[in-house]
Amino acid sequence: MLEQFVSSSSVDNGLVQNSPSETDVDLLDAYSCAVVSAAEKVSPSVAKIEVTQTAGRARNGEPRERHGGGSGFVFSPDGLVLTNSHVVHDASRIALSLPDGRHFPASLIGEDPATDLAVVRIDAPNLTVAELGDSQKLRVGQLAIAIGNPYGFQYTVTAGVVSALGRSLRSYSGRMIDDVIQTDASLNPGNSGGPLVSSDGHVIGVNTATIMGAQGLCFAIGINTAKFVASRLLTKGRIRRAYIGVEAQTVPLHRRIVRFYDLPKETGVIVLAAAEGSPAQKAGFREGDVIIALGGQPVAGVDDLHRLLTDTQVGVKNSMTVLRRTDKLELDIIPQELKE
Fold first, then answer.
1. Residues near 221 by beta carbon (within 8 Å), at least 6 away in sequence
2. DSSP string, 275-324
3. CA nearest neighbour of 117 among 214, 209, 198
4. DSSP character for 192?
5. pTM, whole model, 2 decimals?
6. Enzyme catalytic residues
7. 320-331: per-residue pLDDT in tens?
């Protein structure tokens, strides 16, 4: 009996240790393969960004320079790179390094401090372009892989999961960024602007911040928000926003309400608070109202609301559909221009 027990186990320092089962090995292999595959697919598009900023003048009159950096990733074949606004803000010179060893000067196309996003351009051939995913389809618990250049080291990969969705994070401009992805994939200084990647190698977010002293609290801007911001920066160089003055986040709608009103989307935007004197307060919004449409266009999440509140909405009276408990209401609202 004892011989049979010992023969199926290993003994170390008098303690019996069971050998790992084949199922455990298979699971580890699948996880490793997913991370390796995603990293190999996206890493060639990840750039190391080095920034020089003017920091006043020395006593002898010579200009002082301050150096910093971060990460970014190529998202178009003509050399467009997405990164964080705080990485390139007030930069006098921007330089990018690619994994193949090439170095290029970069020019700033535009930045949006309100979402901490920026687009820069390099003139380079034969670029590897990262594929962009859909942050609206994310689920808590799915694999998340962060790629970047922490502390100046090139192309470091960390893995974790999507810890939470619909978070709010105050940007460097002071504005709240809504619908932020929380992940426990480790981020360090220098990771800012790098991609957060799903297991299939699609970019689902732009890494932006960590909470110092809080382990496992890292945040990324959803890629759907990044797509919208990048398109506006490319066409206009900046974003002129309509403002309604609510703190909000994406929430699921009760199935009975979706069926009763025959709603096209199963999620909406819940109002957590309306700012004093804001268009939302003047329109009669209350805490707990759920926005489901603006001007007849369905609103499935905060990303949708951001996309619909464009410069064309400033000063224009429009109708916003909300759910107040079980009632469906139409509230007239006149958005104002957001002042940064």
1. 115, 116, 117, 177, 180, 181, 205, 206, 208
2. -TT-HHHHHT--TT-EEEEETTEE--SHHHHHHHS-GGGTT--EEEEEEE
3. 209
4. T
5. 0.67
6. 86, 116, 192
7. 999 999 999 999
